[in-house]
Fold these 2 entries.
Entry 1:
Amino acid sequence: MIAWTIYLTLAGALLALLLPRILARWVALVATAGGFGLGLAALFAQHTDFAHFTTIVRVPWVPALGMNYHLAADGISLTMTLVTGLTALAAVLFSWKVENRPNEFFFWLLLVVAGSYGVFLSADLFLFFVFYELVIVPKYFLIAIWGSTNKEYGAMKLTLYSFLGGALVFIGILVAYVTAGTLDLLQLTQFQFAPQLQAWAFPVLFLGFAVLGGIWPFHTWAPTGHVAAPTAGSMLLAGIVMKLGAYGALRVALNLFPLGFQMWSKWIAVLAVIGIVYAAAVALRQNDLKFVIGYSSVSHMGFVLLGLATANVLGVSGAVLQMFSHGVIGALLFALAGAVYYRTHTRNLNDLSLMGLSRTMPFITFAFVVASAASMGIPGFSGFAAEITILIGAWKTFPLAVGITGLGMVLVAAFTLRALKKSFFGDQTGGRVRQETRVPNGAATLAEKLGASLLICATLAVGLYPKLLLDRIMPAVETMRFLHR
Amino acid sequence: MVTLGDYLFVSGLLFTLGFAGVLLRRNLIIIFMSLELMLNAANLSLVAFSRFRTNSLGQPNYDGQVFVFFIITVAAAEVAVGLAIIVALYRARRTTHVEDINSLKF
Amino acid sequence: MSYLELLRLAAPEAIVVLTAFVVLTIGLVTGRREAGDTPAATAGLGALVAALGLAIAAATIVRLPGHATLFHGMLVVSPLNSLFQVIVLVLAFFTVILARGERLLPNKGEYLAMILLATVGLMLLIGSEELLMIFIGLELTGLSLYVMTAFDKASQTSAEAGLKYFLFGSMASAFTLFGLSLIYGFTGTTSLAAIGPRLAEQALPPLLFVGIVMTLIGFLFKIAAAPFHLWAPDAYQGAPVSTAGFIASGSKVASFIVLGKILLIGFGPVSGSADWHGLIAGWTPILAVLSALSILIGNLVALVQKNVRRLLAYSAVAHGGYTLLGLIAGGRAGFSATLFYTTIYAVTLVGAFGVVGFVRRENGGDDLADFAGLRARSPLLAGCMAIFLLSLAGLPPLAGFFGKFYLFSTALRAGANHGLLWLVALALFGSLISLYYYLIVLKVIFLDENAQATPAVARYDFEMRADYLPKMTLLVLAGAVLLLGIIPGTLVARILASFG
């Protein structure tokens, strides 16, 4: 059933390209809503085996080379499927007003979504890599055609970084394939690779994934890419694409080469902590609203990597929860920043602070306050639940890292509050809100309200009752073989 | 007594001369003649091998000589095509010097 | 072996030769007009006959017996040879269709006849396992292609490109010939199957090794491997577009299959090894170095190109480097990976040159700037070009992706302890560079606006006289590239099965 997310989205992509332009957005809406519905239904279905990566479809594809069309799902991949559907639906709602070449726009958008579904559900390394690379080119076109601010540069940089990461992943996959003689993930995760091989193959494979996951110092594509991308593009980047890297690292790199992971895990933790603190510090100095959010994404993804590096159930489950949580919160923040830009044509914090947006855009302001609170890790939102789980997990393995990360969290709060204040609650004393800078159409559209409410509900639901997801994630994590026992 | 080695030496010399001519000369016609020299160097070595690689009955290995006939034919065709291209180029450019043929580069 | 038997087994080649003469006659009978342009109807007739002849030849090949050998390997019928002869015929078929649009050319009949003769040369190259016959096939192909390259008398660059192609080509074939004479001298035979055992039973004399290397030069020239690639950019840019497409596709496929046969059947015993830690002298290390050189030079120089055909030429050099990986890996697996890759590459390039041909007819040029805003003018062409270029860049779900996966995985499996990893990593790095310049072309097509307004006449031509047949052909080719990427299993299985 869950496999239909891929087919539905692909069919939607083709229809969006071929049907008249007025229908494209409706097709996209139906396809993403369908995907979201399927994701919900699968995750909250009774009698599902969340603990094991259970095969859904398996048909021979290229028998001569041992490739199968093999899809499978467990609690982790279903969680990721859900966040994909959620973000995609919100992204379509927030791009309801795309007038320039809508057919192509929704085609590329749905292609990214379909590829992501595919990555999360693949149980064959070749299939996995096909979907993983499928996402690269649509991103380029989404950004280069519909983007803003330095869009061609941002698009090219993002694409080349993605492809570079893909090339490293390719090497890792090839090595695993020719050594073990199979591409089946279920078999590969049982195969014992020689320790000497793992020692060099693991960092290659992990780094390849981590580039897409925004690991420091290979994160620089993320802020420029986010800034250049159109609203929906940034939402997908933050909500889904960065998760592809983290998910690949977890599903493939860690499980294939557990010994290699043991050798390198403390270095991963070091890079993750540097990423958390560094990105937060840089975000504090940015004047472009999207740059701030872009760096905050890198910082939040640092938590995911830290969680993975702990190699214990709590830390890794927290990392998966954080992937979900940041997918929702990051998408929400970018969506609102896009909504602001759409109305004011600026993202410069100093300019925005003169506009007094809290009065002209009440709904967007409200949503942004909620999103900022969630991003800062205020209890009650998913961000808190995820980060506290990661930190508890990390406490056992890397106590020092927890301390430094605490500093990072303070910085996150600082830059989030700064951005929030400057963009919405700027200096409004004494009529400095000049008439010409007032925004005429500040009210949020119905589509925007729906999209934002959807994401807010998701972060609240998981924040108030994290067991909702953790009950499904933790069994799956417990069966993985790289954990320290 | 002339040995196989001597023939091969001459053949190699002819080939080198031809190659040097192709590389160093600037006139298309001369480059063209040098190319023919390279082909004929191969002919010489083929014939020499054919003569010296005898079978148990003392007969030469005729494969090489047959090869030579084909090469002569092919070389004639090559001359025809090559000269035709040179003429076409001469009509367009009024030159047969390689330095002047430089509209396509890098 | 009777002559009737010979005629039966050589029927496909004979049919193509006959078709060439018929097409030539049609061109002569209908005569040349003073205006220089043959009437559309007769040009269409010639193309129709040529296409028909190619189709009949392909059908004849299918009906040949599975295995047959004539005159000690002068002509060998085997599943592998038949498969690739059909592939070359199909590529020639597409070239003939796309050449219909080549309106600048007078003497259409002669041009079509040349395509057919080149095809015969390619069929002989593929169908022979004997040095003399291979040499003749090589020359027949080469001479026809030189003439085709220089065919466009209206353009100055065409003759120049033809001359350069001719000079480099003749020099390379002289090297091959000299090498063949040495191989013949030291092994006493010209049959590939007999050379292998003779090489195995004796220590390698230095002069024989020189012979092997010199022989390889001719074929490396044909596949435009660096540093024997210097002709390629000029020929691709100056030749009529359909010729460039045929050089890049049909000629390349045939060259790779012959190169593979010579190396793996003939020179198999002296292959050596190019493993990082286990270097063994032989032709493999030489090929590995040339492959690395091709990947680097091709991709790096392609970065700065402003002409799309030149860019495709340099990328062809790089792709030649990738394709060599399979031969370096050796064995059935490596050879089949090479053959798969070169086939899909050929299909892709015929299509890409088809698009270039359309743009050239519309804008009168094929520089990057001429592609600006192609999306707005013709979404179909833009979409096809995107598929072709992204396949060349090796992105899924297109054929180039699977081809690369196949090539790289066999290469990695070949050496002990992943010995060829260095070359695979280099090839992946090359792909990264190539993605950049392919994206630049796509950016120009999909983003940039057309700076200079198109002349009204050309525009009229493009819109109204746009031949549906070539456009449909492009669509078919793009569909093939997509399908071969999604279900590559059929072709892979076919190639593997054809080894017997």
Note: The first strand of chain C starts at residue 68 and ends at 70.
Entry 2:
Amino acid sequence: MISVGEPGTKETLSLEELEAAAGLRTGRKHTLSILVENRSGVLTRIAGLFARRGFNIDTLTVGPTEDDKISRVTLTVDGALHPIDQVTKQLHKLVNVLKIRDLEPGDTVARELALFKVSADGVQRGELMQIAEIFRGKVVDVTKRAVIIEITGTTEKIAAFESMVRPFGLIEMMRTGEIAISRGRSET
Amino acid sequence: MRAVDALMECLKAEGVDVVFGLPGGANLPTYDAFVDAGIRHILVRHEAGGGHAAEGYAKATGKVGVSFATSGPGATNLLTPITDAMMDSVPVVFITGQVRTELLGTDGFQEADTIGITMPVVKHSVMIQDPQEIPRAIHEAFHIARSGRPGPVLVDIPMDLSRAEIAYEPVMDVRLPGYQPKLEGNQKQIRQAAKALASAQRPVIYAGGGVVNAEASDELVEFVTSDRFPITCTLMGLGAFPAPHPQWLGMLGMHGTRTANYAMDEADLICAVGARFDDRITGKLSEFAPRAKFIHIDVDPAEISKNVPAHIPIVGDAKHVLAKLVVEYRAIGADPARLDAWWSRIEGWRTKHPLGYEDSTDNEIKPQFLIQAIFEATGGQAIITSDVGQHQMWTAQYYDFPAPRRWINSGGLGTMGFGLPAAMGAQVGCPDQLVVCVAGDGSVQMNAQELATCAQNNIPIKVFIMNNGYLGMVRQWQELFWDRKYSHVDMGDFPDFVKLAEAYGATGMRLHDKSTLVEDLKRAIATDGPVVVDVRVTREENTYPMIPAGSAAREMVG
């Protein structure tokens, strides 16, 4: 997480040496993992904060954690459009928000679930199933004129799969938004 | 014990000595509990008046203000004071009644989604779902309202839950894992700030309302006078540094002094303490203080680098941080002589651009003259509240505040109608002090009904109406920026404020003679009970100097 900086304490200091660190756009996608108290209205507070400060949420998932008093909100924000530092600091001001982690992309396992309903009659069905297999997707339902494919992966993988199946006639697509967990022994 | 009786016990445990409120259907149980609770309650005439009174009380005393209202319209009438308290970081606990739980979500009589409506403008809010939660919720509300960056907290209590029986046990501790304000300030960062200050050639200290909220006035004075630092304050910070003083540049910002604004413009280092770089301070952001590096001290981390990126951010309470900063700064032993050139530049501006106006040659009262007369008549020692507009800016410019908590006004939200009820609350909190409301003839009508409250409870505020018959600030903008095309700003000679005051049971006076003004004001101050003085001033006088909205400090006019 980008926090308030702590420059070293050099013995001499000229004003020219000072550089502003905060408030800058990072230019990449950020995945914020937020632990919140499991109380009514918490999600409204988070969503309302984003709306009134003019921040856009790209994806949002909410679910229980191993502790039933605490829920986890995972949301992704575009760091090219918003100062992430300001986003996290404003979120921290919500009393029901317990912890925020801005997950490092290289140190995070992120997954999203998607369901694709694609039109497919006899000939196309085989080709579709082959593509699904390459993406480690599963065909979970088949009818005469359509198949439903379930796929899990990063946002980028799902986007790639979408571009592959779109030419077949994409009837519907549903995505859950990303959940993410940090690698290693420490908690997210 | 009934939950409402437990509520009263909690208020007493929090040291609440007065509540400003108005009863209604959904908070009948709460008002029933008031009868035997032994807490003073002041019955206001409109919930907005009650909310602003609680703000005035909080700002004058530093304690948490408390305001009660019923559900629906009672709660929605509180919306302006709640927002005002949020914008100006005023610690107020609002307790609203709500319809019975079985009616929630059915559009019941006097039902409003109070929590939903107020969510964007509270520091925190909670709707009671189990009556057993009430004591803890109340103590948490007070804790959140007064600590860290203060602000409004709302507790919404459905009527059936408020009259339920609970097993009351006093709550001794409040633990909120998601709310732990940092007060101390990082020592390394503070040392870094001291070094930067010691090497600065053109420093300015820019202090705001956070210094007042943190009771850090003494620390600010010690810090500023530990060297020859020039100091300016925001509208909300006035009084945090005693005026006048050789190092005092006056207020900065849109209607600040040229000296303060030019000093910010040319500074090489600006040390912001409890201030938030509001647009009324910065003007055109891209041209604000272009040569400066910034130290930003604030208890709210989200204010740091929000508008202006800070080079040395320090998250902490002004009282703690300034005390440490003085120690670090003194240890360096900076040479005060390095500021000689800077001070001669500042003195040049002071001499060339003093605050001033062209006085009338006849008996007409200029609005600026009125403020100077109020200063003289009160010996500069009153608690002054104001509404919003020209009169507010002239008061900020011409009344030198010698101490914090003497200047109570609506800064961030700019709420007309704030001054009179705020004066009422300040007077209740400070019964031995002279409390004066400087009002505009437009603003004062927005909460004039509280004169009845003042008369009934013998709350002896003195309301000085600067009457120019206009919505003066809007008129000024129409004159300057809209080709003098006046659109709906003329209030005429209505109402008759003397008769209005008398109808409410207050004393009314009308003044238009400059030669006896100070004596007449003293006579009004010496009159018992609430007094309303209608002072007729020059109709079309403009508030100067001024940075036009969206312009840079260099472009000041007037």
Note: The domain at 3-162 of chain B is CATH 3.40.50.970 (Rossmann fold).
